[in-house]
Amino acid sequence: MKYLLSITFICFSYIRFATSSFCYWNTACSYRYFSSVTPYSAVRGDIRDSVINIKECEPVSIWGLFRHGRTHPAAKRAGKMKEAISIRDLVVSSYEKGRCSLCAQDIDNLRDWPVNYDLFEKTNALQDEGYQDMFGIGYRLKTVFPQFLDKLEHESYLFKPSDHHWSKESAEAFVKGLGSQNLVIDNQKILNGPDFIFNDGIDSSQKEDESIDEANEYTISSEFLAANDRIQRRLGIDYSLTDDNITALYDLCRYSWSGLHNKASPWCALFTTEDLKVLEYIEDLVHYYKNGYGRKNASQFGHKPLQDLLQKFQRAKEGKGNIITACTNKDVTDYHVMFYMNEEPLRSVCEGGICSWGEFERILSPFLNSTQRYSD
Ligand SMILES: *[C@@H]1O[C@H](CO)[C@@H](O)[C@H](O)[C@H]1NC(C)=O
Ligand SMILES: *[C@@H]1O[C@H](CO)[C@@H](O)[C@H](O)[C@H]1NC(C)=O
Ligand SMILES: *[C@@H]1O[C@H](CO)[C@@H](O)[C@H](O)[C@H]1NC(C)=O
Questions:
Q1: Three-state helix/strand/coil letters over 211-275
Q2: Are 72 and 123 in contact (CB under 8 A)?
Q3: What is the pLDDT of residues 311-368, one digit of tens each?
């Protein structure tokens, strides 16, 4: 009897160990890529550490293209997410009946998740996290380039958000982060952000259909169906989850993942990393065909900003207006341009992320003649 008991104990502890090793709450590196809702902190470097310093060089000008900070979901998405919250009761009761294979702590965290109604009601609003991210970029830039970001003279700078309110709020946060007084944001509609660039001159209904077609195609692939099946079995609920329900649960996971505090959302515990990759892929497919390389003429979309970059730096080099890096070596002044992406040197443009002035002009001047239409 004693012998049997200890075997039971060993088996029991073995099973406990095997399942608890798959818990979400204690995963050291939970998956943090959620397509366009990826927290900035999951992908950024830090310009304070990565800045390239060249001997005897001083910064002369900065030009940047920034995506707005993270926003709350749009109304349609928000409605479905709010409705899907009721699925958590089904999951908890399924766990209590022993049918759900989530870990106890993950169930507790899910049950205790405080509903943040702002998420569903303040649709498209800039999230606090989005505000802090934009503020942080401004703050770090100021830390790295205090000399010329300190006293920006009128007309020596331009801050130009796109026409969406979340872009304007993002620009305000960025400027606050720079910490200088009385900086003015130019809210006049001229060069608009990606939405505008990507929608220009193209029938929008056709574009929408194309991107959704490709995503729909994927939802009948064996890869997607297998993920769907895994989720349904793991939760062990009688309620048969539709694609819409799974998307809503995924949205709850990614929109409540806190990049600010690097805190995973308990909703993400419903998914394995493999499931999260499948769901991320659907979102990426939509973006790829809607406003990425899968779009016809997509290669033209970036011409306008590149033109602007070249022209602004040419003017800066001539001492007019905005600010590049000038290296003074005895009597010659040499100019270099450093490229960064997400606060890390972008090494694919020029070696080590540093272009000589000649390279810079050679790479960007083909875009000067771009014929893409813009309303500026
Ligand atoms: C699940 O999705 C269907 C549509 O596919 C919807 O009618 C239903 O309300 C959703 N259920 C929940 C709980 O969100
Ligand atoms: C793509 O570019 C070509 C030539 O520049 C143009 O004729 C065509 O209308 C563009 N197509 C779309 C969908 O914008
Ligand atoms: C731009 O167009 C002008 C006039 O058509 C031409 O002279 C010039 O070489 C072009 N520049 C580039 C970089 O293609």
A1: HHHHHHHHCCCHHHHHHHHHHHHHHCCCCCCCHHHHHHHHHHHHHCCECCCCECCHHHHHCCHHH
A2: yes
A3: 989 988 887 655 555 555 556 678 999 999 999 999 999 999 999 999 999 999 998 8
Q: Whose CA is nearest to atom 1 of ligand 3?
A: 369
How far is ligand 3, taken at its centre, from the CA of residue 361, in Å?
Answer: 14
d(CA 358, CA 207): 39
What's the Cα-to-Cα distance from 180 to each of 62, 139, 143, rounded to whole Å? Answer: 16, 10, 12
Q: Which residues pair with 263 in a beta bridge?
A: 258
CB 211 within 8 A of CB 285: yes
- Which among 80, 91, 239 is the best mutation to test ligand 1's pocket, defined by most ligand atoms within 8 Å of the CB? 80
Q: By three-state DSSP, how is residue 126 classified?
A: strand
Q: What is the DSSP letter of 343?
A: T
Helices (H), the chain: 2-20, 40-43, 47-50, 75-84, 87-96, 104-111, 118-121, 128-144, 146-150, 165-178, 194-199, 204-218, 222-235, 243-255, 273-291, 303-317, 357-364
- The 10 Å Cβ neighbour count of residue 111 is 13
**Contact by Cβ (8 Å): 127, 69:** yes
Q: What is the DSSP letter of 175?
A: H
Q: For residues 159 and 153, what is the distance between their CA atoms, to the nearest angstrom?
A: 13
* Cβ atoms within 10 Å, residue 146: 10
pLDDT tens digits, 247-279: 999 999 999 999 998 899 999 999 999 999 999
